[in-house]
Amino acid sequence: MTAIEENIEIRPAELEDVPVILTLIKELADYEKLLHEVVATEKLLKETLFGDNSNAEVLLAYSANQVLGFALYFRTFSTFLGRPGIYLEDLYVREFARGNGIGEALLRRLARVTLEMEGGRLEWSVLNWNEPAIGFYKKLGAVPLNEWTMFRVTGEKLKELAEL
Question: How confident is the model over 93-144, as pLDDT tens digits?
Fold first, then answer.
């Protein structure tokens, strides 16, 4: 455990944390200039994060009973490695807490979670314009996968595809 990790508490989110999770999601979306895309509600997050069919988990970082950030992730599987992995959907540290090792502590915890489940990899995406995050991730030893292009189908196109 690093000195930073000793000064903060990182714990799995619980049902009563949903309001703060939604607040953090909105703060992240605002930072990414995507707030207009947030349709998540507390009710929906309660169902999808803590319901019977939940497949995502959240870690919250606290210090002195103040939430500093979160990591939302889910399990994946690598056919080439023959092992599970973790996909980090969102990592966010509140503006006032940045530069204090909170993001690194969250990533270190996720690395431990990955190894504890005998996972083969921890991966995530980052917006191309987010140079501070890219530099931070590279400093920790993460490498960009420039040969891969992410694809996404949502909304009406998802419905159309399902009809095929």
Answer: 999 999 999 999 999 999 999 999 999 999 999 999 999 999 999 999 999 9
Q: Which residues are catalytic?
A: 137
- Which residues on adjacent β-strands are paired with residue 35? none
Residue 2: is its pLDDT beyond 80?
no
The answer to whether 61 and 10 are in contact (CB under 8 A) is yes
- Could you tell me if 67 and 20 are in contact, meaning their C-beta atoms sit under 8 angstroms apart? yes
CATH homologous superfamily of domain 3-163? Answer: Gcn5-related N-acetyltransferase (GNAT) (3.40.630.30)
pTM of the model: 0.90
Distance between CA atoms of residues 25 and 154, nearest Å: 19
